Amino acid sequence: MSLQGLVDATATALGGARELYGQAAQASGLPSTSGLQSLKTDLRASVDTVPATWRGAGGEGYKLTGGNGVAALDNVVGADARVGPQVVAASNESRDGRSGMNGVVSDTRAGVNAIAPSTDTPAGKTVLVNHLEGQLDRAKTLLTQSEQRNIAMANMIRAAGGGYGGRPMAGGMPMGGGMGMPMGAMGGGSPMSALGGLDGLGGLFTPIAKTGRTGRSPSGQPGAANAVPGMPGLDRPGLANESRLQKYTRRLSRAITAAFPEITDIGGYRPDALKWHPSGLAIDVMIPQWDTPGGKALGDRVVQFVQAHAQELGLDHAIWRQTQHNADGSSSGMSDLGSANANHFNHVHIASIGGGYSGY
């Protein structure tokens, strides 16, 4: 398969993976609960106010039937109360899963567009293939995690629905956006194996054949054009103040600024007991709404982005949410320093290998 064919196939697979999550509506519980509660209240009032003249089998039968009806409604209202939170959780899972897959698609697109100019070399081709494989692995992991959570939620919904009197519960999973996506397509092999296409997604990736470099500068000298990786944004300053940053640190700031428009603040040089910031070797990428699922997902994507481009960006390590992520893809936990800032929950600390104070 050609490189362009591989890019197109990856785009189709990721598009299909994203569509598995559907379009989840915002859920706040079961709409039937309040109506059933009102019906139970009215029926109870009717039974409790039966005229004293209603005696005999007819009167007693009415009271007995009414009481049974109240008890049945009470069971259903109780089941609603147990099932409702699981429906909300299912809706949130579908929405968060689609958001996570959107991040995979976005990072894949950015990586392909950044790597494409160097794919006229064997090394560039290898980098692209590794990038695509890594992004597919991310998608598979996300789908597997969602599948596991969906199965757990479906079981909880079935258990919580006991008050419905044995009515069969829907067998679909929350990932489908409407509790109806059959999970069988995921079984028996790779989660990516049953994915369909998504028209037009391949167009999100820049065609490689049209972006390969010639390896020559405008002056015609070979090699000069390859001095800086062909990543978006490296030709203009990033959010961090660059005056006291080293070359690869500036490059990291510029690449992240271009790849993540939702990020609006990147810190750079500052006094510190450790060498990284005072020596111009580190930046702090501040994460908006860091204490929300969306903020965590954004920080995760930043870490994945710099690890995927560790060589061209000169990455030494990144620290996010009390974990150090190294350029070789390894990671290790860190001790608790007592605050969200010290534990790097509100920002991603990213350190470079330096490179001196000239160029980018």
Features:
alpha+beta; 46% helix; elongated; 360 residues; six-stranded antiparallel sheet; 7 helices
Overall description:
The protein is of the alpha+beta class. The chain is built from seven helices and six strands. The protein has a six-stranded antiparallel β-sheet with strand order 1-2-6-3-4-5. A hairpin with a 2-residue loop joins strand 3 and strand 4. Helix 2 runs antiparallel to helix 3. The longest helix has 60 residues, at 56-115. It starts with a helix and ends in an 8-residue tail after the last strand.
Q: Can you summarize this structure?
A:
The chain is of the alpha+beta class.
Counted beta strands = 6
How is the largest sheet built, in terms of strand order?
1-2-6-3-4-5
What's the Cα radius of gyration?
A: 28 Å
Give a quick account of the main beta sheet: strands, pairing sense, barrel closure. 6 strands, antiparallel
Structural class: alpha+beta
Q: How many angstroms does the end-to-end distance come to?
A: 35 Å
Helical segment tally? 7
Shape annotation = elongated
Query: Low-confidence runs (pLDDT<50, min 5 residues)?
Result: 166-227
Keywords: Plasmid
Organism: Mycobacterium gallinarum
Domain ARB-07466-like C-terminal: 242-345
Protein name: ARB-07466-like C-terminal domain-containing protein
